[in-house]
Design a protein that fits this description.
- It is a single chain.
- The chain has a domain of 68 residues.
- Helices cover 58% and strands 8% of the residues.
- It contains 13 helices and five strands.
- The strands form two sheets. A three-stranded antiparallel β-sheet has the order 1-2-3, with helices on one face.
């Protein structure tokens, strides 16, 4: 499938977001309880300067949420690990593979371990966690098991249903959505759609892309547009981003 610029850029942003997540267990970005400082890629911020990185993180989060008002669920398709998981397990090959369950379990285990570590090792390095667990420290054992179990439950049991019905960000995005928010629009004016259903098979959110892409569950990942190009030939797709602009008030 020919990748267009949008998808290449999305892959780069996804890779960067994974690297930032992995930097937490590797202790490049963390809270050092002993040193009472926040470590941000080689620079330590003590109690008096910690608000710099904290405000920056809050500012970045607000920026991403703000972009969502205009561009839709970009957080999901560009940054969220659940979307990366869905792109993997819901791709057309995996959807019909005999070992689909095994693939889901393996990716769920891997991501659950990583995400659990991302959260806990922000405060406590791995070697300390192991020492505490070996000495029977109940809070560290309980929190680790609860986080790991919770992530496994979401990845194995809920998948895209969590993104549609349970994710708090989806709720915020729904509240921010307006008639000016970007949607992926399907148009077929010359009746060139071959009904191949490649756009549905590729959709990580398990949507019937031709009918549901302009709804709130679409993450604007662009995979349906690429699948359609593969079917209809270079430069031909029946899916296009629609960015409605506010109409300027008429002056008399
Ligand atoms: S409908 Fe298209 S753009 Fe929307 S989530 Fe599915 S594949 Fe991505
Ligand atoms: S991929 Fe394109 S041609 Fe195939 S069903 Fe979807 S819209 Fe129609």
């Amino acid at each position: 499938m020919a990748k267009d610029f949008y998808t290449k850029r999305r892959r780069i942003i996804q890779t960067l977001s994974v690297l930032v997540l992995l930097s937490i267990p590797l202790r490049f970005f963390c809270f050092d309880l002993d040193g009472e400082c926040m470590r941000v890629f080689g620079k330590d911020f003590g109690l008096s300067t910690m608000f710099y990185p904290l405000f920056t993180i809050v500012g970045l989060l607000l920026f991403v949420v703000g972009i969502g008002m205009k561009k839709g669920r970009l957080f999901c398709s560009h940054l969220c690990p659940m979307h990366m998981f869905l792109e993997k397990v819901n791709n057309p090959k995996n959807k019909v593979a005999d070992n689909r369950k095994r693939v889901i379990i393996l990716w769920s285990l891997l991501l659950s371990v990583i995400l659990t570590q991302v959260i806990i090792s922000f405060f406590q390095p791995l070697d300390n966690q192991i020492k505490l667990a070996m000495s029977g420290n109940l809070p560290i054992i309980g929190i680790s098991l609860a986080l790991f179990g919770g992530f496994m439950f979401l990845f194995v049991g809920y998948q895209e249903r969590f993104c549609k019905k349970g994710c708090p960000y989806a709720l915020i995005q729904m509240l921010l959505q307006s008639e000016f928010t970007r949607t992926m629009k399907f148009t077929n004016p010359e009746k060139t759609c071959t009904n191949c259903r490649k756009c549905e098979e590729i959709c990580p959110m398990d949507l019937r892309a031709r009918f549901e892409s302009k709804g709130p569950d679409c993450t604007n990942c662009n995979l349906c547009a690429e699948a359609c190009t593969t079917e209809l030939g270079q430069g031909n797709t029946l899916f296009h981003f629609n960015d409605p602009e506010p109409i300027a008030p008429q002056t008399r």
